[in-house]
Amino acid sequence: MKNTNxxxxxxxxxxxxxxxxxxxxxxxKLNIAxxxxxxxxxxxETGFPVISDGEKEGxxxxxxxGLKAELCGLARTNKKDIDAAVDCGLNYIxxxxxxxxIHLEHKLKMTRDEALEKAIEAVEYxxxxxxxxxxxxxxxxxxxxxxxKKVFGAVANAGADRIDIPDTVGYSTPQYIGEITKDAxxxxxxxxxxxxxxxxxxAVANAIxxxxxxxxxxxxxxxxIGERAGNASLEEFVMALHSLEFENKWETNINTKxxxxxxxxxxxxxxxxxxxxxxxxxxxxxxxxxxxxxxGVLNNxxxxxxxxxxxxxRTRWLQVGKHAGIHGMNAMLKEYGIEPxxxxxxxxxxxxxxxxxxxxxxxxxxxxxxxxxxxxENKLKRxxxxxxxxxxxxxxxxxxxxxxxxxxxxxxxxxDYGVGPxxxxxxxxxxxxxxxxxxxRLKEYKLDSISGGxxxxxxxxxxxxxxxxxxxxxxxVGEDIVTTSVQAMVDGINRIMLKNLLKEKKx
Length: 507
Description:
The protein is an alpha/beta fold.
């Protein structure tokens, strides 16, 4: 079995930013680039320098940071675009022109020969400016196959350093990507990249097929973000190469333990949430509810997990519900130091299944409440306790909060602002917890009214997440929204800290 290193070309800052609703400031682009560099990507497509002053600024900031990764800029096949990349301090461009008849006729209004001439001129000009040049035939997978080979051969003769095959609208199948990758290698004798979009959910499969056919590089994005349905996702592509059985063994320079952390970071900065069922980095990727699955995972994780969550910086978690079994439920309770006897276990499980049959989600909140009802006492150790808080709000002033917490016998206090009194109070709580534990952030907040009238009761449910990917739900009921929200948040943080300490056997 031959070991081959596959180059990871990350285009989160360029193609990823072309996702509807995503717009990154120069400072955010720099921070993401630093995160990608830490992750171990080989090349970063820093942006499209010619499109705006802000884009140029972002590219210049990245170039000036002294990162280990190669830095690339996108350029159309004209001198203005290429000069803009040079002006930013880049020595590597990714230049492109559409080659499919549908693009030539309806977008560029060019003939095939005119497009070919532009491609050659751009490569020659880029080389004359001392640049490394990667050439892309946009919409390659819908381009006439013989013409595509002609283009690749011509740009190779013009001095291109790399050839990229973009599946611009995700139209290809794995088989066809493999075939045209072999074509490109044959006519160009250059390193080949594949750039796959996910319009039919085949981006990662197509990228892998390109590699199997001889491509040495894949263009990818974190979380698969990108135009329309997105791009081939870095985390899925890398972990597939890392974990699946292939005839060859492929390696990358990615530090896989940083994958989840990077995913969360970029999701936050880009303002694009990751769907729960997303492979590798989705919330549910290492979550289990079914009793059969949970029992299997507890005995041997490989029964229902193709990879260990720790490899990508995750932890597994269990969920109780109507599909739950005794083993999974007891494992969850044990995480909070609760170990019921056989009869108590049966009673708790019956309550769990009854609630699940009503179509309700059974969170840790409900499970712990049921356990306490059955056992007859609160077995939960409280590490974090609310010692006091106050908020100030009004018209024409920014809401402000003061919070005091007792954390394992030591008192801490903090103040912070927010868009409202609840936000300010929760921000102050997170400021305190960041001093004493790993980052704990509010992931979800839900407010419900459970009674009417002037003295209506409200129900606040929060989800908090720590830096390790542990997620805990907590619920509180009360008359005052701010107080109830603060209590729910404190309870959630208490539970996630307790869970970690028990896991580390520190209590």
